[in-house]
Design brief:
It is a single chain. By secondary structure, the protein is an alpha+beta fold. Strand 3 and strand 4 (117-121) form a beta hairpin. A four-stranded mixed sheet has the order 2-1-3-4. The chain folds into two domains: 1-60; 62-133, no CATH class. The chain is built from five helices and four strands; from the N terminus they run H-H-H-E-H-E-E-E-H. Helix 1 (8-21) packs antiparallel against helix 2 (26-39) and helix 1 packs across helix 3.
């Protein structure tokens, strides 16, 4: 008899709780999740589950994961200011930034959390101006 299929939310809740309770074993829990997804042919859900885990980390422990894309690498000052802004506005205990660059943004940045997006890029501002009749 096959085991019951765990919902994405249950998986996310469980992994987030393990990551909070045992941060030194984070790699183990991520590998266990990956193995579960492969074994149950659910690899296609990986991105959704990661987003669900990010939400759970915030809900359970105030840890916020933010994906930041900027036109150029962030300076230490910008990184600190953005982290403080997000911590204050979202009442996060801890903010983790994952950074990438995209020269097509021209300037500014886009910050994405599991639930929201802040687009302060020059490209978006130019695109908005272009749509004005």
């Amino acid at each position: 008899m096959a085991a019951a299929r765990a919902s994405r939310r249950v998986l996310a809740r469980t992994i987030a709780a393990k990551l909070i309770a045992e941060p030194a074993r984070a790699k183990h829990w991520i590998q266990a999740l990956a193995a579960y997804l492969v074994e149950n042919k659910r690899e296609h859900e990986a991105n959704l589950i990661v987003t669900d885990i990010e939400r759970e980390l915030f809900e359970q422990d105030g840890q916020l994961v933010v994906s930041v894309t900027s036109a150029r690498p962030l300076t230490g000052d910008v990184r600190s200011h953005l982290t403080k802004l997000l911590t204050d506005r979202l009442q996060a205990k801890k903010v983790f930034l994952t950074e990438s660059t995209d020269a097509a943004l021209i300037g500014g940045l886009i910050a994405r959390t599991p639930d929201a997006e802040l687009d302060a890029s020059i490209r978006t501002k130019i695109n908005r101006l272009a749509t004005i009749d």
